[in-house]
Specification:
globular; mainly alpha; 7 helices; single chain; 215 residues
């Protein structure tokens, strides 16, 4: 929430107060939620990395049948962490293809990532449901929040820009981009909270195990 507030404040100063000094601009770039390899991107990448670590940890505490799914999820989140920092998905943005798609899909990367998101939802939602009511509800909620921001708000912003409702360099584009990142961060934090609950429960089960040694 702090990053979102600072992001919107900085964009308001740039667009409405015409603040252009180099010192402030460097700070604004560092906290811009729509930029790559800056403070906010590193923070989001760190959150995804933590989720990847916790998923791997839970996998290590799981039986053979469950372990594979947890490990696959861990690798997915590790990729997302790298992608968040280095903006790998931007490589899919091919301007020449925009004339063939709906304005909401102008970012292009939304198309393959949305397809992948649907595939993983079909694959892993039943898996989370099998883990129990609490973890399934929190996991699905966090996933919906994250995807709504990463893909839903991104598509909305693209549509508004292509149809010239807002400007790509204007305040409202940046504000909506800030909402996108806020939803992503919220979804990840909720998922981390879910994983911590699951990890604590599993460790408690382990801690109650004991054996009686015979002389």
């Amino acid at each position: 929430m702090t990053f979102f507030f600072l992001h919107c404040l900085s964009e308001a100063l740039i667009n409405f107060a015409q603040v252009r000094e180099n010192f402030y601009q460097d700070f604004f770039d560092a906290i811009n939620l729509d930029e790559e390899f800056n403070l906010t991107a590193l923070y989001s990448g760190m959150l995804l990395g933590i989720a990847s670590f916790l998923l791997n940890k839970i996998g290590g505490l799981s039986g053979k049948r469950e372990r594979q799914n947890w490990i696959i999820l861990s690798k997915i989140f590790l990729f997302l962490a790298i992608d968040e920092i280095f903006q790998i998905h931007e490589l899919f943005v091919i301007p020449e293809l925009r004339q063939y798609v709906h304005p909401s899909l102008a970012s292009i990367w939304v198309i393959p990532y949305a397809a992948i998101a649907v595939y993983f939802a079909i694959k892993f939602v039943p898996f989370f449901i099998s883990q129990g009511r609490r973890i399934s509800q929190l996991s699905v909620a966090s996933g919906v929040i994250y995807v709504s921001g990463a893909i839903g708000i991104e598509a909305c912003n693209s549509w508004l820009v292509i149809t010239e409702v807002i400007s790509r360099q204007g305040f409202w584009y940046e504000a909506i981009a800030g909402i996108e990142e806020l939803l992503e961060m919220t979804g990840i934090i909720l998922f981390i909270y879910t994983l911590l609950i699951e990890l604590i429960q599993r460790q408690k089960k382990l801690s109650f195990k004991f054996s009686i040694a015979r002389d």
